[in-house]
């Protein structure tokens, strides 16, 4: 199947829950909100809980050490790194 085809992009959207505009044009990722990006792994099944956080690092331009086995703490660390970059305090 051609990766540029409508069928392929539709299937990829169904699997990843990432909207087609971002799959067709990776440059448009800069326009996706932080909330939207953080929602993408919510339906993802990973072997390790920490991988759900690690898969977002590139999309969020976050660089942090991978500490395999930390489980849900990885997502907390990811959020802390995003806060440092964006400057949001909750």
Question: What spatial form do the alpha-carbon principal axes imply?
Answer: globular
The description of the largest β-sheet is: none
Q: Report helical residue fraction.
A: 40-55%
Number of H/I helices: 5
Total number of beta strands: 0
Structural class label: mainly alpha
Ranges where pLDDT stays below 50 over 5 or more residues in a row are none
Straight-line distance between termini: 44 Å
Counted up, domains total 2
Regarding quaternary structure, what we see is single chain
What value does the Rg take, in angstroms? 14 Å
Q: What's the average pLDDT?
A: 86
In terms of DSSP E residues, the strand content is under 5%
State the order of secondary-structure elements, H for helix, E for strand: HHHHH
How would you portray this structure in words?
- By secondary structure, the protein is mostly helical.
- It has two domains: 1-31, no CATH class; 33-90, no CATH class.
- 47% of the residues lie in helices and 0% in strands.
- The protein has five helices and no strands.
- The longest helix has 14 residues, at 73-86.
- The protein is globular.
């Amino acid at each position: 199947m051609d990766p540029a085809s409508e069928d392929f992009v539709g299937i990829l959207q169904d699997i990843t829950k990432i909207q087609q505009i971002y799959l067709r044009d990776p440059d448009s990722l800069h326009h996706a909100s932080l909330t939207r990006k953080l929602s993408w792994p919510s339906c993802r099944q990973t072997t390790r809980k920490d991988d759900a956080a690690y898969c977002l690092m590139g999309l969020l331009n976050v660089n942090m050490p991978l500490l395999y086995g930390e489980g849900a703490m990885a997502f907390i660390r990811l959020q802390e790194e995003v806060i440092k970059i964006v400057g949001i305090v909750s």
